[in-house]
Amino acid sequence: MDTSRLLATEKYWLKRARVRLAMVADAAPELGARAAADGSVLADIRIEDGLIRAVLPAGSAPCCCRGVDLEGACVLPLETGGSLRAGGPADLLIDRGAERRLVLRGGAISTEGCDLEVACCCTPSGVPE
After folding, report:
1. Sign of CA dihedral 118, 129, 4, 10
2. What is the rounded radius of gyration, in angstroms, for the C-alpha atoms of the chain?
3. At 62, is the pLDDT very low, low, confident or very high (cuts 50, 70, 90)?
């Protein structure tokens, strides 16, 4: 399954996303314990039905679930002053630098022709594409 098809599904994980801890609403203590000196942390973000369902420490996403390994790409809320919170909209900017950006609205890709590459787009066996 290619990345664009995965990001058009209703449920998936953004794995190993770099987020600013200050932007995570109600961050779990175990997430904060992993923060780097610059206030960033690697997290797994669960997207379901266009909403953020969870922001957990990297490695928390089940290995058998659909997901995209972002290899530390920065994930930010699209809304200025917005936060990453459970129940909030999956309107996100994925930024790998050097003008390699991808915009998600409601968890689905909203821009065409993006050259963002991801390390792994995994669909476990037995899960229909």
Report:
1. negative
2. 14
3. confident
Q: Which two tokens stand for residue 8?
A: 């058009």
C-alpha span between 24 and 13 (Å, rounded): 16
Helix (H, G, I), strand (E, B) or coil at 79: coil
Q: Quick one: CA dihedral 52, 58, 64, 68, positive or negative?
A: positive
C-alpha 18/C-alpha 104 separation (Å) is 16
Three-class secondary structure of residue 34 per DSSP? coil
Residue 83 pLDDT > 60 = yes
Beta strand 108-109 with 101-105 is antiparallel
Query: 34-52: per-residue pLDDT in tens?
Result: 899 999 999 999 999 999 9
CA dihedral 42, 26, 75, 70 (to 10 degrees): 40
Nearest-10 Cα torsion for 101, 27, 106, 104:
0
Q: What is the mean pLDDT of residues 75-80?
A: 92
- Return the structure tokens found at 1: 């399954």
The token pair at 66 is 């659909």
